[in-house]
Task: structure prediction
Amino acid sequence: MSNELIYQKKNFYEVFGEAEKKKAHEYAIGYTAFLDKAKTEREATEESVKMAIAAGYREYSFGMPMKAGDKFYFNNRGKNIFLFTVGTEHMENGFRISAAHIDSPRLDLKPCPLYEEGGMSFLKTHYYGGIRKYQWVTVPLALHGVVVKADGTSVQVTVGEDESDPIFYINDLLPHLAHDDAKKTVAEAIPAEKLNLLVGSEPIGDSDAPIKQHVLTILNEKYGISEEDFLSAELSAVPAEKARDIGFDRSLIGAYGHDDRVCAYPALTALFENASSEHSLMCILADKEETGSDGNTGMQADLMCDLMHEISLAMGANPTVVRYNSKCLSADVSACFDPNFPDVFEKRNAALLSCGVVLTKYTGARGKSSTNDASAEYIGWLRGVMAKDGVLWQSAELGKTDCGGGGTVAKYIANHNIETVDLGVPVLSMHAPYEAVAKVDLYETHRAFCAFCKY
Ligand code: MN
Ligand code: MN
Result:
């Protein structure tokens, strides 16, 4: 049998030389800076708006006229952003859409979070997204978010990111007293109601809860808030660590929230680099993916269709035709084969580190339920597009069939009659407080989005 008939995954280091490797390392610098500025969907939206304005994008409002060459962004409630360009070809040829999410698993504060017990004061949390709870204890945590007061004013809170800031912490049991506890399963080890943030231990005054009183006094001095203001707040505990290179060769990046900023960032940079494409482009950075894409900032909301409808009207196009001819890359991460846990992967269909951007035909679980399952025709087209720029890509499933599963925003976009497939970066330790990716895979993802915008 002739060799070229055999399909084999290729490794970046076999295909490309020093020059391409250098470009991948340089690209990663901008990405790590973005990660440190954008740990929540609100911060990622804010950062994207800044980048968009710097790249010449204007804020869009419903009903605005537009023409070929225009570049707009629509900031949806500060948590979700749509950026789009009007191409020179007819609008009815459809949009090239890249859709990533900018929310990540974390610990949200409960509406009534503050209490004291045992000489300590704590904030109760309710976890957001799918986490392995035992990973979130005894790691430095920062608090990010907003408090909206009854008078309508809002206060930004970020504590734990500056070197001089305090951090927060969740206690865990010492091994010396864990004889019985150690018999529990990993899932039982840390129940949700033990995820309580340690926030103080020094009393003040003579109330029944002097440590809690002290915490409230500090919060009042710093932010002008009282306990009732927690009821209208969105405060999240996220890992306080900054993004760092991993390995002697600095080939990987460790960070909180690669899922899914590692796809959001290349989708954005590809949009900016290809704004003069003949195609109309749209980049969507969505909220609420980790909890099922519900709500008015998630991809199940009508907003994407509303915007496409408005743009179509402004350009004299039929919105039904625009959607029918649009193509979408649902930009989300895949599980990277982990040699420490080989049993959950099916080796012929697993994403390998340093083998490029991952194309996932279908996600879901239990016999492909809850997936859009991209068509062979669309994937065939996409193969041709990536080949034009020599993008290194690989095909993969999330893990072994019936081992678990997961979903993305793909099906919600495909449901609007838009060709959609999942594409993104392979991630190690997905949903852990500190995840890892390879720089070369990040770079190939950027190149994949560029090819998609161009051809
Ligand atoms: Mn994701
Ligand atoms: Mn996720």
About this structure: The chain has eleven helices and 20 strands. The mean pLDDT is 97. The longest helix spans residues 18-37.
